[in-house]
Amino acid sequence: MELLEIAESYGILIFRRRFGSRFRPHLSVRVRELNVDFHVDSSPGRGYNIITHAHTDHYGNRNMKNFKAIASVETSRILNATENQPFRGIVHNVGEKLSLSGVTIETYPTHHMHGSSAYYFRENNLLITGDVKDYSNLPRCDVLITEATYGHPVHVFNDELDRVIEVAEQGYELGVYPIGKAQRIASLLSKNGIGFQASEKIEKICKVLGIEFEPGDSRLVSPKEVKNGFVLSAQRFYRRRIVVSDHVDYEGIIDMVNHCDPEYVIFYHGNPTNQLIEELESDGRKVLTLRDINVSLS
C-alpha cells in the first residue's frame, strides 16, 4: 500500500530487480513520467546506476565499465585506484546539479567518507543518502531512502578522536578500514602534525585524494594486521578498540530522519530493528525496509 501511495503522490516507483530466485542488491527507483530507472548501489541495469560512495558493498566496483553509472569525482578516483582500471561513468562534484534524461538531481555531502554523496530528486521530493556520518547538509524531503547500519538502540556512541591522537603520538598501530576511514584518520593526524606510516593500499588511496603526510612511528593498517595497537571502530567485537565510526549511531539515525522530516522512510541498507521502526512510526512516519518492497521487475 505504501509503495502505491508513493507512486501516486510522488511519481516514483520503488522496486527490486529479480536475479533468478533472488534479488539484485538494494533497490531501484523509476521516475514514472519519464520512464527512467535509477539503481541504487547495485549491479548494472537498464537506466542509471547511482554509486553513493566507494565501499565495495555499494557496488561501484561492479560498475567500472558502466557508462551510465553516476559517482562523485573523489569516488571515481578511489575506484580507479582500488580497481586498477578507469571508471567510465558520469562523474560530478559533490554539490553539483545533474540533468539526466530529463531528471534533475541535486547532490549533497554525507561525510561518510571522501566523495560520499546523497542524491535529491527535487521534482519527486526524494532523497537517497547512501551511508551517512553527518546529515547537517541534507535537505528536507517527503521520501527518504537511507541506511541503518547502527539501527539497534544498543549502538549509541561518540567518536574518541582525542584518544586516537594520543595513541598515534605514542606510536601505536591504528587499525582502520583501508577505504574511507583510513583517509579520514590520515587527514586528522596530518592536520595535527602527527607523522605516520601507512600500508600500501592506504597510502595509494591517500595519494589519489591529495592527502599528504610526514613519516612517523604510528602506522595505519587494516584491522586484521594490528599487532601492537588499537582498532578504530564502533563494533563491539574488537578487544582493543577506540570508538571511531563513519556512520551515525542509533540516536543519529532518528535525528537525521527528524532533520529531513519525510513522510516515508525506506531503509535500504543496514540493520533497522523493530525498535527503530516503531520509534519512527510513533512520530507518524511510514517506515519500510527491503522486506516490504514487493514490487519486482527483471
Automatic annotation (TrEMBL):
SMART domains associated with the record: Lactamase_B
SUPFAM superfamilies for the chain: Metallo-hydrolase/oxidoreductase
Domain Metallo-beta-lactamase: 25-172
Protein name: mRNA 3'-end processing factor
